From TrEMBL:
Top-rank taxon, per record: Eukaryota
Entry protein name: CHK kinase-like domain-containing protein
């Protein structure tokens, strides 16, 4: 839709003039993005029903001089979306969102500073402005690159192909290695939530019992004791050393919507463009990023056949990035992956009941039940493999 230049954008508290002012500050390439040079602005909500905690809006600018930048930007406006609304836990969800939005800004700043320090580039968005979210106001905002011009995300089902997975694992290894090289990851604060987050996930997971009773009644009984702070701490921690190596920056929410690939002629390619939405980023176990990537975005057969190969690929990239002086051994990585499977299981069983009814995931056509079956298969067999891994490695819960 074409926005009036002085009106609020899509019912937010932000005007086009406000956005242009923030873009100019500290961005010399945008020094001409004034209202006086603006002919028209088109705004589009691209959330598409798949976002839980934000409204995502693109602004496309038409300038009186075609050399003026930027051509477009994205506004990420935090707020609880319909898919995540739960009136019974609204206050807890609001508190979580306050932390996540501030945390995303902290993580982007950390990645930007670290990449400059070590003279490297990462496949993440450029952030031009950020302000914190609060229940008491509507000023929370991130202004960043519009990656929808050259990129797009894949549907969760069927998910990523082998080359796309490999390219994502490569970038994860580069980001994790940068975190280790910086030596400053532990300065990123963990979310000091007072509520029982594993317990909340366990409660939502029980909905799986009604979706496939013959399977999930038994499986959920078997993993009943996984939903606790100890297993959560196998992934989220800022200990100096765990599993024999220091923590690094973990994305922690790698489902397909947060992984963008380049598109050409409106066709998605295998080339990774960006890993986005770092609001859940934290110090911890890097292998849970690989677990979440494979567990929800790939088929059971692919995951089972390729996990060890991809862990080796990941380890090789870490070694390259760190001049063959990695902070961990491959055996330590494998054990950390196994330990982190409990955390991945929590999020799989928490997310699947939502995904099961999301048109953006399972569609609305005749393939819906087939996709639902595939979704539940991925969850079922990851749970089975988690139980086996914990028994094999004697991992305590």
């Amino acid at each position: 839709m074409v926005e009036k230049i002085n009106s609020e954008i899509f019912g937010t508290d932000f005007t086009v003039e406000f956005v242009l002012e923030k873009l100019k500050i500290g961005n010399p390439d945008f020094h001409q993005c004034d209202l006086k040079n603006l002919v028209k602005v088109d705004a589009k909500d691209i959330t598409g029903g798949s976002a839980f905690f934000s409204q995502v809006i693109t602004l496309n600018f038409e300038w009186n001089d075609p050399t003026i930048l930027p051509k477009s930007v994205v506004l990420k406006v935090p707020g609880i979306q319909a898919v995540a609304k739960d009136d019974d836990n609204l206050e807890d969800t609001e508190a979580y969102l306050e932390f996540c939005h501030e945390n995303e800004l902290i993580v982007y700043k950390f990645l930007s500073n670290s990449s400059k320090e070590f003279n490297t580039s990462l496949k993440i968005p450029n952030v031009y402005y950020g302000s914190n979210y609060s229940r008491s106001h509507r000023k929370g905002l991130i202004i960043m690159d519009d990656l929808s011009v050259n990129g797009a995300s894949l549907k969760l089902l069927p998910g990523l192909n082998n080359i796309q997975v490999e390219n994502t694992v490569t970038e994860l290894a580069r980001i994790h290695a940068l975190g280790w090289k910086s030596g400053k990851v532990r300065e990123i604060e963990l979310n000091a939530r007072e509520d029982n987050f594993p317990g909340e996930m366990k409660q939502i997971a029980q909905q799986l019992r009604s979706l496939r009773p013959s399977v999930f009644n038994k499986l959920l009984d078997k993993i009943d004791n996984i939903y606790n702070d100890k297993v959560f701490s196998y992934a989220v921690y800022n200990d100096e050393i765990k599993f024999g190596f220091p923590p690094t920056l973990v994305h922690s929410d790698l489902w397909s919507s947060n992984i963008l690939f380049e598109k050409r002629d409106n066709v998605i390619t295998n080339n990774l463009l960006s890993i986005i939405d770092w609001q859940s980023g934290h110090p911890g176990n890097p292998s849970v990023d690989i677990g979440r990537l494979l567990g929800i975005n790939t088929s059971v057969d692919y995951r089972r056949k390729n996990t060890e190969r991809l862990l080796k690929h990941y380890y090789e990239i870490v070694c390259q990035e760190m001049d063959n002086k990695p902070p961990l051994t491959f055996d330590q990585l494998k054990y950390a992956y196994a330990a982190g499977m409990g955390y991945v299981t929590m999020f799989l069983t928490f997310g699947a009941p939502y995904y099961y009814d999301m048109p953006a995931v399972v569609g609305t056509d005749e393939n819906r039940e087939t996709l639902r079956t595939e979704l539940l298969d991925r969850v079922q067999y990851f749970l089975e493999d988690t139980i086996e891994a914990y028994q094999r490695e004697n991992i305590t819960v």
